[in-house]
Design goal:
By secondary structure, this protein is α/β, with parallel strands linked by helices. The protein has 14 helices and 15 strands. The protein binds iron/sulfur cluster.
């Protein structure tokens, strides 16, 4: 049942030790500003005091939140607890890089109130990690999972990437399963404009896997992880059981309200979306002046809200409400025959082949495109 007064709280930590060549998230390598950023987030949190009745999830994402010190993370968690209302059983997640995860760090995170870790493993092959220019090794990932368990974390998610040159995807998945994580995220390598990999692709020094290969890798993960009992509940996400689904990210997919703090963070209250400036200096300066660090905002029309619910719902095994689907019965029946959706209990649910074309599925349902052959 949806709690209408509840929201998720996201804190964007925009710092990384170095920039990965495939990454287009907003993050900077300069760590000298972390204290100023921390103070600014505390100010921003205060500006939203009373705006959201309660938060059911807290999520520190980035960037690399595990680069922050115990003092900085403690300050932020304390301010979250005192400035806004967080429910007692809130899911509190922090993204960590394996090379930051000593046993001591894991214990500190647990003592500060985090109860879920998202570990950026990417691959268990050091050659593949070298290609991605990650700072950690496969061994450090294994140790990070061990340290998490020793510190009392029962809810651990591992991030993996696929579609990487010379990667043995089955070996990566098999190693991940041996660690029995509560949750797995499997992201396809996508080459985005503005990244080093994009430039390499333009210069023909990097060629991405073909669409066919990527499709096979996606389907392989679905059957391999499904065979081990994991539920494929969102295009890129698998849970050991329903209780292990990511509660914070599920708010996004269910189009539920969230407040995002930090540079470039987005917020949504159910009708309006707003987002912050994508500059650490600009963000800190605006908050020093007592202003909201906004870049822009938009109020969504009833039709825009419907389309967003449709797009997000069709990425998940929950599907979208039939009431949000603009198709006539003939289109629905045709897409069912094509094996892309099923219609049940008043919802349109993507099949695994439907998830493969999740970005196009809303267009197909709205009759703007023909089904793939
Ligand atoms: S550590 Fe994560 S956020 Fe930072 S540059 Fe690499 S992929 Fe991007």
């Amino acid at each position: 049942m949806t709690d209408p007064g509840a929201a998720g709280l996201y804190i964007h930590v925009p710092f990384c030790a170095s920039k990965c060549p495939y990454c287009d998230f907003f993050s900077i390598a300069a760590a000298g500003m972390t204290d100023a950023w921390c103070a600014a987030v505390c100010r921003e949190l205060d500006l939203y005091r009373g705006s959201f009745p309660r938060f059911k999830t807290v999520y520190f994402g980035g960037g690399t939140p595990s680069l922050l010190s115990e003092r900085q993370l403690g300050l932020l968690m304390e301010r979250v607890r005192t400035s806004v209302s967080v429910v007692g059983d809130a899911e509190c997640t922090i993204e960590v890089n394996p090379d930051d995860m000593s046993l001591e760090k894991a214990r500190v995170l647990r003592s500060l109130g985090f109860n879920r870790l998202s570990i950026g493993v990417q691959s268990f092959d050091d050659g593949v990690l070298g290609f991605l220019q990650r700072r950690h090794t496969a061994r450090q990932s294994l140790e990070a999972v061990e340290h998490a368990a020793a510190a009392g974390f029962e809810n651990v998610s591992l991030d993996l990437m696929y579609g990487l040159p010379r990667q043995d995807w089955q070996a990566d998945l098999a190693q991940a399963l041996r660690l029995q994580p509560a949750h797995l995220s499997c992201y396809q390598l996508t080459i985005k404009p503005g990244t080093v990999f994009f430039r390499m692709q333009q210069e023909n020094s990097l060629s991405p896997e073909s669409e066919d290969t990527l499709e096979q890798l996606f389907l392989f993960a679905d059957s391999f992880l499904g065979g081990a009992g994991y539920q494929h509940y969102e295009v890129s996400n698998y849970a050991r059981d329903a209780a292990c689904e990511a509660r914070h990210n599920s708010r996004y997919w269910r189009h539920l309200p969230y407040l995002g703090l930090g540079p470039a963070a987005h917020s949504f209250d159910g009708h309006k979306r707003w987002w912050n400036v994508d500059s650490v200096q600009g963000y800190c300066r605006l908050l020093e002046d007592g202003a909201f660090p906004l870049a822009d905002e938009e109020t969504l029309s009833v039709e825009q809200l419907r389309l967003e619910r449709l797009m997000l719902g069709l990425r998940t095994s929950r599907g979208a409400a039939l009431a949000d689907v603009g198709s006539d019965e003939r289109t629905l029946a045709q897409l069912e025959r094509e094996g892309l959706i099923t219609v049940r209990s008043g919802r349109v649910v993507p099949t695994i082949r439907g998830m493969l074309v999740a970005d196009r599925l809303p267009l197909l349902l709205e009759g703007h495109e023909n089904a793939p052959a």
